[in-house]
Amino acid sequence: MRRKDREVTKFEEMIAIMEKCDVCRIALNNQGYPYILPLNFGMKAEDGHVELFFHGACEGTKYDLIRADNRASFEMDCGHTLITEWETQNCTMDYESVVGQGHIEIVPDEEKYDALCILMRHYHQEDFPVSRAIMTHTVVFKLVVESMTGKIRSKKK
Predict the structure, then answer these.
(1) Is pLDDT above 90 for 126?
(2) Counting runs of H as helices and runs of E as strands, what totals does the chain give?
(3) CA pair distance 37, 54, nearest whole angstrom
(4) CA pair distance 134, 106, nearest whole angstrom
(5) Spatial contact of 29 and 66, defined as CB atoms under 8 Å apart
(6) Which of 21, 40, 48, 148 is 20 to 30 A from 11 via CA?
(7) H or E element: which one contains 53?
(8) What is residue 108's three-state secondary structure?
(9) Is 62 helix (H, G, I), strand (E, B) or coil?
(10) What one-character-per-residue DSSP string does 25-49 give?
């Protein structure tokens, strides 16, 4: 990372940033081009390991790409504030972000309910009754994070 003064190295601090984000973008390999998807997500973080959970319809391009190559990168960001410096005629943006990579696994049917509950908890809907009937029409997958880095750009820092 070029700007070491903005780097977030502590696992707990990266998790705190991720907890504030409401969208995670994943990038899959599409014949040499990245295929990027913005997705709602849930997260399980324990013992220095992170799993990101996603859901979607039962078919589509992302599943074809995952079957061909289950490696993925991810990015999420939050805390955006435009900073304008009128005196110097300069502007910048405050933000917090985490980027990383890992591999994707399809969540087995018997684990779907718990994974969807993790997803709902991320959006502060702990008591939302997930329909078991809809789960037959839903694929749940997780990105097992292998590495990640965080960055904060803040005038307050």
Answers:
(1) no
(2) 3, 8
(3) 11
(4) 17
(5) no
(6) 40
(7) strand 49-56
(8) coil
(9) helix
(10) EEEEEETTEEEEEEE--EEEEETTE
Count Cβ atoms within 10 A of the Cβ of residue 79 and give its class: 0-12 exposed, 13-18 middle, 19 or more buried. middle
Q: In sequence order, what are the residues at sequence separation of 6 or more whose Cβ sits closer than 8 angstroms to the Cβ of residue 112?
A: 135, 138, 140
Give the whole-angstrom CA distance, residue 142 versus residue 124: 19
Question: What is the DSSP pairing of strand 42-46 with strand 49-56?
Answer: antiparallel
* Pairwise CA distance, residues 64 & 151, whole Å: 32
pLDDT in tens, 11-37: 999 999 999 999 999 999 999 899 999
User: Exposure of 26 by Cβ count < 10 A (0-12 exposed, 13-18 middle, 19+ buried)?
Assistant: buried
Q: Using 50, 70 and 90 to split pLDDT, how confident is the model at 157? A: very low
Q: What is this structure's pTM?
A: 0.90
DSSP state of 22: S
Q: What is the DSSP string of 114-141?
A: HHHHHHHHHTT-TT----TTGGGG-EEE
The arithmetic mean of pLDDT across residues 75-103, rounded, is: 89
State the Cα–Cα distance between residues 49 and 52, nearest whole angstrom: 10
